[in-house]
Amino acid sequence: MSTTQPVQKISGMGAIRHEAGVAFRVWAPNAQKVFVMGTFNDFTEENHPMESEDGGTWYLNVPDAKIGHEYRYLIINGDKRLSRMDPRCREVTNSIGNSVVHDPNFDWGEDDYVMPPWNEAVIYELHIGTFGESKFDDRPATFDEAAKRFDHLKRLGVNVIQVMPVAEFAGDYSWGYNPSHMFAIETAYGGPPAFKKFIKRAHAAGFAVVIDVVYNHAGPSDLDMWQFDGWSENDQGGIYFYNDWRATTPWGQTRLDYGRGEVRSFIRDNAIMWLKDYHVDGLRWDATVFIRNVNGLDNDPGGDLADGWTMMQYVNREIRQEYPNALSIAEDLQGNPWITKDDGAGGAGFGSQWAAKFVHPIREAVIAPDDTARSLAAVSEAVSMRYEDDAFSRVIYSESHDEVANGKQRIISEINANEPYNWFCIKRSTLAASLVFTAPGIPMIFQGQEFLEGEWFRDTVPVDWDNAKEFKGIILMYRDLIRLRRNLSGVTAGLTGQGLHCHHVNEAEKVIAFHRWKEGGPKDDVVVISNFANRGYDSYRIGFPSEGRWIVRFNSDWQGYNQHFHNTLGYDTDAVAGDFDGKPAHGNVGIGPYSTLILSKDT
Question: Distance between CA 147 and CA 152 in Å, rounded?
């Protein structure tokens, strides 16, 4: 069986298919010998010895290896004989099986999709295994099954799908935040070809795809990277991990060593892989606060990881240079403005970050059982907060996978777990949603939110699509809000703009109003009014940015959304001159309890 090397070595890491076979390269700096074994040699352990290279890598070209062949490495370190899967393998049989020589070819056709401008983006977060409907009770949904719901998302009007992690994890059921093989695609979901097909179909339907990535830890289970080449210190993880106190995370002793060049390249190459090979349009980084601090804290110098900060800068800089339209989102949740500052100024270089200072005050305001407990000052601050004077440097939401699990539930269940579909629950959950789509920021909703999914999130419980039939009026409400947020009717450009003035905050009556604008003027200036009390008004006075006829574009109390709503008339109003609320004009509006109005002008 031939092991003749090609004249010139093939560049790259992992298993690289080329005209003269498959080249294998693996980083194992502490090994004395390394062999590659697989389908091509009946997994005979020592038939194919690899050549030691500078920098601790090992290389061999195997002419007889082919796409689809399974393989592993045998690493010799003293008396240790370690059979390992390839840390950079693009495909696996399963998380504890074998690496597979991956076919990189895929017919992308005319996939020239371009990410929408961030100020027009509306994100829908979903989990592949529960968003689709699985054909079988003993496995999660697949990429193909999830893609069958694209028609629903298209009608809803979202234009960005954020997919929870799909890198290979232990078992078949998981949220995905326990990656065992960071370069491989979860086999239970369909593997690499199915994911590429999913993205191609998403782009054809008009959706950008942002993928969740996990670099704050690995595993911790089914982890062949652990003590990969037999070396470790303090009985820790070896070459890919910190081997001291810095290894500690809430998920195990598996924090990657951000200061080691080979590990930084591993993370960088992984990030670029999603953008290059899978045509994703952005990355959402999980728990970046645990990349930059051992304890996951701000203002904790003793726990800070300078290597983690510079690693994020490095990878974001590489992404920006190669894929300038890609959206890099951080889940940091500390309200730290340096996360979204440019790396040249010392920031981490992310384009946007999840906004804890929005979701928590808004949820608290609508979940509170008594109207007097709702703080409109906190709501005003949540609406107004931004980083670096950029409204779209934050992603705002009232539900996410984190906010509806781990002891927390959907808003309707937080309000009343025994009767989650009563009037109060529906009104106040949709009140929160109306602020998600009207406050400055990139709005995001979580799967099923648009039809009042009541279950807290579990990776074994599918979304209840029967709710979509029962609450089709609520879906219509979300659709109307998304259309206005994206300015699809051309009359609410202000919701895509940077301008904000929260000009009316009435703590006594629990009514808040704010002005949004892009350039200003007719079909641009938008006034949003929200009532946080169980009391409606036939005539409530509000300041307006100009005189003239202000037209109601949205009234969340309309009975077309739900037959139990009050249908309080949210009439068009003629604003007249006269200072009020710090605005040059004022007018009266009708607004229902726990309701939102959106108004703008035609002329």
Answer: 10
CB 193 within 8 A of CB 232: no
pTM value > 0.85: yes
476 vs 233, 458, 481, CA distance in Å? Answer: 58, 26, 9
Residue 217 has pLDDT above 60, yes or no: yes
**pLDDT of 1 strictly over 80:** no
- Give the pLDDT of residue 2: 47
Query: Where are the chain's structural domains?
Result: 14-84, 493-600
**477 — phi, psi (to 5°)?**
-60, -50
What are the CA-CA distances from residue 264 to residues 252, 258, 270 (Å)? 20, 6, 10
Tell which residue, 91, 36, 84, 93, has the closest CA to residue 225: 84
Q: Sheet of 573-580: strands edge to edge?
A: 499-506, 511-517, 526-531, 596-600, 548-555, 573-580, 583-591, 537-544
Q: How many whole angstroms separate alpha carbon 31 and alpha carbon 253?
A: 23
The whole-angstrom separation of Cα 259 and Cα 3 is: 36
Question: Among 276, 288, 261, which residue's Cα sits nearest to residue 352?
Answer: 288
pLDDT score of 4 more than 80: no
- CATH code for the structural domain at 493-600: 2.60.40.1180
What are 257-264's contacts with CB under 8 Å, separation 24+?
257/307, 258/291, 258/305, 258/307, 258/308, 258/310, 258/311, 259/307, 262/27, 262/55, 262/56, 263/239, 264/311, 264/314, 264/315
* DSSP at 387: B
b/e sequence 34-55, b meaning 16+ C-beta within 10 Å: bbbbbbbbeeeeeebebebeee
Q: Please, what is the Cα angle at 550 between 546 and 554, to 5 degrees?
A: 135
pLDDT digits (tens, 9 = 90+) for 502-516: 999 999 999 999 999
pLDDT tens for each residue of 356-402: 999 999 999 999 999 999 999 999 999 999 998 899 999 999 999 99
Residue 135 pLDDT:
86
pLDDT over threshold 50, residue 569: yes
Domains 14-84 and 493-600 share a fold: yes
Return d(Cα 530, Cα 115) in angstroms, integer.
32
Sheet holding 57-62, edge to edge: 14-18, 21-27, 57-62, 51-52
Handedness of CA 517, 518, 520, 524 (dihedral sign): negative
* 220 upstream amide cis, omega within 30 of 0: yes
What is the chain's Cα-based Rg?
A: 27
Question: 201, exposed or middle or buried, with CB in 10 Å at 0-12, 13-18, 19+?
Answer: middle
Tokens found for residue 436: 């998600």
Report residue 465 as tokens: 């699509």
The pLDDT assigned to 136 comes to: 86
Which pLDDT band, with edges at 50, 70 and 90, does 273 fall under? Answer: very high
What's residue 6's pLDDT? 57
CATH number among 2.60.120.10, 1.10.10.10, 2.60.40.10, 2.60.40.2470, domain 14-84: 2.60.40.10
As a whole number of angstroms, the distance between CA 83 and CA 430 comes to 54
